[in-house]
Task: inverse folding
């Protein structure tokens, strides 16, 4: 079976406000899906549901990967990523260390950082988050996800807060990850990103609008 | 001699009262006290250093016990959700404003020779003071640790989960993320305990070379008109306050990054 996610009548309600209404959603393995729609139509909510960070208020969402622990296969890059109060090196290798990996961290760090466009990762290794620009933070956070070699990469407007050079580096990194077999779901307003990833577009605005 | 302007029949001031001179003599006791205070510190006066030692020992013990009990409780209170959590927070927050003399009174009633814990002979001893000071520090550590955990950016939890953290790893990493804030809580609690008078006076009894702390010694010496030791201990307290604030500022800076 190539289906990765399948959802029926998915709804998420926060304090009596409907944040997401999705009658049907299916995604195949290796596919790139772009979630579009106006602000507040539920793109980020759907990403959090797909990342198993939250449970739907109603409806069903099935993941056909490792269902015993999907969060070890799926990772989400937040729109404003959070870096822990540690060095860049420890941030990038955090996911690996959480999985118990102790060897080859330096190699994994260098590979992930180069994938997001840092040509000299060692210079940044000891820096902390306050010494990074917004674009650097975004790329470091993406590097932390790519280091995990995830089955599913969820991206919440990854290029909305960065300059053109950082956006280009992010697109290149995601495309490289795609070619390695990662499935990608990306919430975005960026038509350039959408075209660059050659993504199937799912517009969430219509479903929520129809309900309201 | 000054003429009594309110008349002899109404004024309490003696008719031959002479106020201090405007300059020179009335400031003499202060500068004299200051010089004596420096001498006491330089010559490591026994009574002065006994008060400093008693203060540091009782405060450190109280803080150690309060941290051992308060940090896990505060972390659980901030990290988990359970029925009655808001009520516990309310009680803990209310206890932040607990007057030190009231703590002294309650613990006194417990450890006095006629009290339920009287057989332990804790009244007017350092351990007795430590009990009171622990009760003073505990609400600060519980409430503010819970506050620090609750104030942590929601994205931290989401990030750790999406990087694959298990529940135990999530709790540990959350604790690590608020380590500087927790450090600030402990330093604040230390500052509160080291400067209090009520508990130390009521439970310690201000016994020289035993339970006399810096604050109770300052209070006593000032009431006797002996300013030198009071000033010497005041200088030490000021130094401690400066060190505490320096540490707080450093922790605050580290906490932001």
Result:
């Amino acid at each position: 079976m190539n289906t990765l996610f399948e959802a029926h009548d998915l709804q998420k309600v926060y304090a009596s406000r409907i944040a997401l209404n999705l009658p049907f959603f299916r995604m195949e393995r290796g596919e790139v899906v772009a979630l579009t729609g106006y602000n507040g139509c539920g793109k980020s909510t759907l990403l959090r549901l797909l990342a198993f960070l939250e449970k739907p208020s109603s409806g069903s969402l099935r993941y056909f990967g490792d269902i015993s622990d999907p969060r070890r296969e799926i990772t989400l890059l937040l729109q404003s990523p959070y870096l822990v109060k540690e060095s860049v090196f420890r941030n990038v290798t955090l996911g690996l260390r959480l999985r118990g990996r102790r060897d080859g961290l330096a190699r994994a760090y260098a590979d992930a950082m180069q994938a997001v466009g840092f040509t000299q990762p060692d210079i940044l290794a000891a820096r902390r988050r306050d010494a990074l620009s917004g674009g650097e933070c975004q790329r470091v956070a993406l590097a932390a996800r790519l280091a995990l070699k995830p089955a599913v990469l969820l991206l919440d407007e990854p290029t909305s807060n960065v300059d053109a050079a950082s956006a280009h580096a992010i697109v290149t990194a995601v495309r490289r990850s795609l070619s390695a077999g990662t499935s990608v779901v990306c919430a975005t307003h960026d038509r350039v990103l959408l075209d660059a990833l050659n993504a199937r577009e799912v517009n969430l605005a219509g479903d929520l609008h129809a309900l309201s | 001699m000054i003429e009594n302007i309110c008349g002899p029949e109404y004024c309490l001031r003696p008719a031959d009262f002479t106020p201090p001179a405007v300059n020179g003599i009335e400031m003499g006791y202060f500068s004299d006290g200051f010089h004596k205070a420096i001498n006491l510190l330089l010559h490591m006066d026994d009574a002065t250093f006994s008060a400093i030692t008693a203060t540091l020992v009782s405060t450190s013990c109280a803080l150690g016990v309060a941290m051992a009990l308060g940090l896990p409780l505060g972390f659980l209170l901030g990290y988990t959700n359970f029925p009655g959590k808001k009520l516990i927070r309310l009680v803990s927050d209310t206890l932040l404003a607990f007057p030190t003399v009231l703590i002294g009174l309650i613990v006194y009633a417990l450890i006095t020779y006629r009290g339920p814990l009287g057989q332990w002979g804790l009244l007017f001893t350092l351990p007795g003071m430590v009990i009171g000071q622990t009760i003073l520090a505990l609400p600060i550590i519980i409430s503010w640790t819970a506050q620090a955990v609750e104030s942590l950016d929601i994205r931290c939890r989401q990030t750790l989960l999406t990087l694959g953290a298990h529940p135990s790893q999530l709790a540990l990493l959350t604790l690590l993320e608020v380590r500087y804030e927790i450090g600030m809580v402990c330093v604040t609690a230390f500052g509160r305990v080291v400067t209090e008078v009520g508990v130390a006076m009521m439970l310690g009894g201000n016994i020289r070379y035993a339970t006399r702390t810096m604050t109770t010694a300052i209070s006593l010496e000032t009431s006797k008109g002996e300013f030198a030791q009071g000033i010497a201990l005041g200088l030490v307290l000021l130094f401690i306050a400066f060190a505490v604030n320096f540490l707080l500022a450093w922790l605050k800076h580290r906490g932001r990054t």
Observations:
- Chain B touches chain A at residues 153, 155-156, 158-166, 169, 173, 176-177, 180, 254-257 (CB under 8 Å).
- The CA atoms of residues 113 and 120 of chain B lie 9 Å apart.
- The mean pLDDT of chain B is 87.
